[in-house]
Amino acid sequence: MASLIDGKVISQTIKDELKEKVEKMKEQGITKCLAVIQVGDNPASTVYVRNKKKGCEYIGIDSLSYELPENTSEDELVKLVKELNANDKVNGILVQLPLPSHINEDVIIKTIDPAKDVDGFHPQSVGALCIGQKGFVSCTPAGIIQLLKRSNIEIAGKECVILGRSNIVGKPMSLLMLRENATVTVAHSKTQNLKEVCKRADILIVAIGKPKFVTDEYVKDGAVVIDVGINRDENNKICGDVDFDLVEPKCKAITPVPGGVGPMTIAMLLNNCIEA
Ligand code: NDP
To answer: Of 234, 214, 235, which is closest to residue 226 (Cα–Cα)?
Structure first.
């Protein structure tokens, strides 16, 4: 039977560590503030934004909230981001994605001052990660590294297969695993012999957005499986990209969905806010 990598417990530990750090910073007169911008009222975004603000409150940092109407123009959003860039009281800026289709996300991400880019999406942050320089790292992949390290899972020298190559999960994940000295393969929708490729993995990280896609046929005996997916199954229940019931008996350790990778994303965002 696999051991369960419990993201709820690990993220709570990180949040408590951050809370202590914030208290110490406050004693030295240092305060931190995250500005959160949401455009429109996408229900999923509203939940994410609420949880991010709750996280700030828990660890003791300020948050500023901007809830803008759906018809906000790109120029208006750019103007607000520039104002926040210039505001010394604001350390981190987060623009909740997705944005309405009339706003170009790339333009907005590039407008955020890289020094306040706590989501780690700015090209400068991504470039810094690529060449091993200091910069903000995208929160979900950074959270996965913490899950592995805090579960005492060795990364260096291991075969790691990452299924999915998105800019927010797969690509930064591959760079982080490389930084941790894994041997990294990135697979995607055009990969041939996908099952065989995945079966090479000592650590298999799946981020494709396809409910229960990865079955036991994709997993080597004794592998560690990290499931990033958040989907709804046929009964409208939240499930991952991995078929947990089939895969769990085969592997050494696995993350559940929910309660695995998900809770880590906010913990790492809060960490970035403190670093900002
Ligand atoms: P994207 O849709 O941006 O990317 C999906 C990737 O999976 C693409 O690279 C795509 O390949 C690949 N892919 C899709 N279908 C297949 C297939 N059949 N075989 C092989 N590869 C495939 O997704 P995201 O990275 O944004 O998100 C992935 C999942 O993770 C989603 O369920 C999302 O909800 C979840 N997520 C969870 C987070 C968390 O906090 N836990 C945070 C972010 C995302 P190609 O490039 O060739 O099209």
So the answer is: 214
Record the tokens describing residue 247, joined without a space. Answer: 């895969």
Q: What DSSP character marks residue 104?
A: -
Q: How far is the CA of 207 from the centre of ligand 1 (A)?
A: 4
Which residue, 271, 241, 270, is CA-closest to 256?
241
Out of 96, 208, 217, 239, give the residue to mutate to test ligand 1, the one with the largest number of ligand atoms within 8 Å of its CB.
Answer: 208
Compute mean pLDDT per 10 residues along the chain, 276 residues long, and list them.
96 98 96 97 92 96 96 98 97 96 98 97 96 95 98 98 97 97 98 98 98 98 97 94 98 97 96 95
Sign of the CA dihedral 185, 223, 173, 43?
positive
Structure tokens at 168: 């927010």
User: 208 CB less than 6 Å from ligand 1?
Assistant: yes
State the distance from the centre of ligand 1 to the C-alpha of 175, rounded, in angstroms: 16
Looking at residue 1, its pLDDT comes to: 83
CB 242 within 8 A of CB 212: yes
Residue 48 three-state SS: helix
Could you tell me the pTM of the whole model?
0.97
Pocket test for ligand 1, best of 11, 97, 166 (most atoms within 8 A of CB): 166
